[in-house]
């Protein structure tokens, strides 16, 4: 089957032209427009908990929730949460890119296999220094560090606490 690959520029033009509705839950992954999984109540709870728990970092980082992150010319994803390098004003005229990300968080329920098999490797390739996968089915948080060409050199289950930029977060407070 022949597939047409889009650039991020094409992706934005399709949205501007109304080909992709404004409320469409899609992202661009290696040139393909991909539907995102619906968000359930446990997903919402975990994401809101993370926003609350990470909010003390505002100033040290920009907290970006379900907003675009450009990983390359044909990949623009929408992680559940991204901590970006400050100041916020640097993103006034451009979308955040991989080198801007300090942390990416994916909350996974229906999307668990996709997040592990597709998105985490994309984050590694893009050099994202740390990724948290909040696994609602497994009731655990996986932490990925030390990005390589297509995988992370360190993949651990968070035991007790997560830590980023000196802030410690109890894992039990993230999971519903």
Could you tell me the CATH topology label.
tt1808, chain A
**The CATH architecture:** Alpha-Beta Complex
Strand content: 25-35%
Structural Rg? 16 Å
> How widely separated are the two ends?
41 Å
Tell me the quaternary state. single chain
Query: What helical percentage do the residues reach?
Result: 10-25%
CATH superfamily: tt1808, chain A
The CATH class assignment is Alpha Beta
Enumerate the strands of the largest sheet in spatial order, edge to edge or round the barrel.
Answer: 3-6-7-8-9-10
Low-confidence stretches: none
Give the class from helix and strand content and strand pairing.
Answer: alpha+beta
SSE pattern: HEEHEEEEEHEEEEEH
Q: Tally of extended strands?
A: 12
Please summarize the sheet with the most strands: 6 strands, mixed
Number of discrete helical segments:
4
Overall average residue pLDDT: 92
Overall geometry:
globular
Report what the structure shows.
- 24% of the residues lie in helices and 34% in strands.
- The chain is an alpha+beta fold.
- The chain has a single domain (37-174), classed as Alpha-Beta Complex (tt1808, chain A).
- A hairpin with a 2-residue loop joins strand 1 and strand 2 (32-35).
- It is globular.
- It starts with 7 loop residues before the first helix and ends with a helix.
